[in-house]
Amino acid sequence: MLSGTTISSIIAVALVFSLPTKAAPRQMMRRSTPELSLTAQLQIADTAIDRYKLLSKDEDFVYDFTNSTTPFANRETFPALVGSGTSFSVGQLPACSMVYLHLHPRATELFVLNSGRVLTQMVPEAGVLDSEGKQRVINTELGPGKMTIFPAGSFHTQVNPDCEPANFTAAFSAEDFGFGLVAQETFSLSDDAIAATFGQSIAGEDIDKVRDAIPTDAVIKVEQCLTKCGKQKRHI
After folding, report:
1. Where does the record place the Cupin type-1 domain (predicted)?
2. What would the pLDDT profile of 214-226 be if each residue is shown by its tens digit?
């Protein structure tokens, strides 16, 4: 049996170790960190409860696409998404336009068409072959209420071949999905790397011409559609 002195010592030691563990986290959360963005503070918060304390206003949980300067709700533009593992986009693909070939390095995209018509092409990872043993390209035609999936890292593009805008929504499986333009990134490599990659089919002296010809916009016009719809080509 333990003596009274021993029991008192054990209780004292327990108090010494227990009190700081209760006090320290509260002190840490109350400490002002003005140099950190709200998104950063949410990311390092100890618990989900602490994140709710940082998002103290009800309007922190509303993202207004109609008044936003960007069509993407991600953890930077909509901090309430921190910890959710998701992001979202609402947008419009103008008549006779194509989203330049791109990929999302950190997220799978679920693309839903709300109005209009959109044609999509998606290239899966290497090793996914068609019936002829060539790299498979997945083509879809979407109408209102139809959805397709672009797995993370897959090259894909969307085309509106008609004379009216097409409205879409897209969900992403990451709070920061990323966006990479395939042609721009490929032709940012050295001339030797580009020439080798394309099997010397592009002469070294022509590489800069190709670089200069690559559109800088994410959305470009589709020439055949412009002719069909009687529209003038212009930058979007």
Report:
1. 52-208
2. 776 656 677 878 8
